[in-house]
Amino acid sequence: RGNAMLVGVGGSGKQSLTRIAAYAAGMDCKQIEITRGYGVNEFREDIKEYMLTAGVGNKPLVFMFTDSQIVVEDMLEDINNMLNSGEIPNHFPADEKDRICGDMVPLLKKMGIPETRDNCWGQFVLNVRDNMHMVLCMSPVGDALRIRCRKFPSLINCCTIDWFMSWPKSALISVAERFLGGLELPNEEYRAGLIEMCSIVHKSVENMSVIFFEKLRRKVYTTPKSFLDLIGLYTSMLGNLRQNIDVKREQMTVGVQKLNETNDIVASLKDDLSKLEPVLKQKGEETEKLLQQVAVDQAAADEVKEKVGQEAAVVGKQAAE
């Protein structure tokens, strides 16, 4: 038999630790699911289901309840009653109570207890207290926890209180080594420096939050979740940068390949031109000779044209006479 209240800011690992502990103990970890319109009646129906599992089914379970699931304060009053006495007053109507007592008869026979109604109900409540372990995950931020503990004393009297403090530097380094151990880096010296840097950044933010509170009277909380987010942000940014570098490297590789192909084509064209150069030189000489011959022929044609013109003039004069 035992219940616990875990006190720590959001992201301290309260729920994760509860689930791990429940798994290690071989128990189911139950938790309500807040939906639209969820209220006290729905909460009591869920509690009723867990009580039947623990009481009639005689199966151990862990009921985890967080302060973010407190829709109305009446929920805490029911939890206060459960912690104090193992039941909620007037929770089960008469017919359901009779059914529970009937279901408890075989268990009482096995235990050698008289099967009276009071014994059946008492054993049911006893099973609930023994098998249903309540774990309350609360945040110390603000005055809500202090007020609730004052209004519902069973939260203190009937629970083992575990305070979740900030991680020491050794724990930060150990976690960073776990998450950054498989990261591809140039050498182990870089890895050691990176791990040390993560712990220094996290601790420096914690120290600055104290100064921030002293100057502005405003609290800033850093949690293990913040540290994990820091490592996740670094690995994500590193992965994106490496991906961009790979893309640019591929683009440069393709560009160099195209330049090499172009150089090969230019070299081939130069080779073809060098082979055609004698032919071009010969054709140029032949063309020059042809032009000279054309000039000579043109001069002869001009002389003939001039003679024909003179003769045409003489003939024209004779015809006129």
From TrEMBL:
Domain Dynein heavy chain AAA module D4, chain residue ranges per copy: 1-237
Transmembrane helix recorded as keyword: no
Cross-referenced Gene3D superfamilies: 1.10.287.2610, P-loop containing nucleotide triphosphate hydrolases (3.40.50.300)
Gene Ontology molecular-function annotations: ATP binding; dynein intermediate chain binding; dynein light intermediate chain binding
Name of the protein in question: Dynein heavy chain AAA module D4 domain-containing protein
GO terms for biological process, alphabetical: microtubule-based movement
Keywords, comma-separated and alphabetical: ATP-binding, Cell projection, Cilium, Coiled coil, Cytoplasm, Cytoskeleton, Dynein, Microtubule, Motor protein, Nucleotide-binding
Organism of this sequence: Phaeomonas parva
Top-level taxon in the UniProt lineage: Eukaryota
GO CC entries: axoneme; dynein complex; microtubule
Cellular localization per UniProt: Cytoplasm, Cytoskeleton, Cilium axoneme
Organism ancestry: Eukaryota, Sar, Stramenopiles, Ochrophyta, Pinguiophyceae
InterPro entries in the record: DHC (IPR026983), Dynein_heavy_chain_D4_dom (IPR024317), P-loop_NTPase (IPR027417)
UniProt feature coiled coil, ranges: none
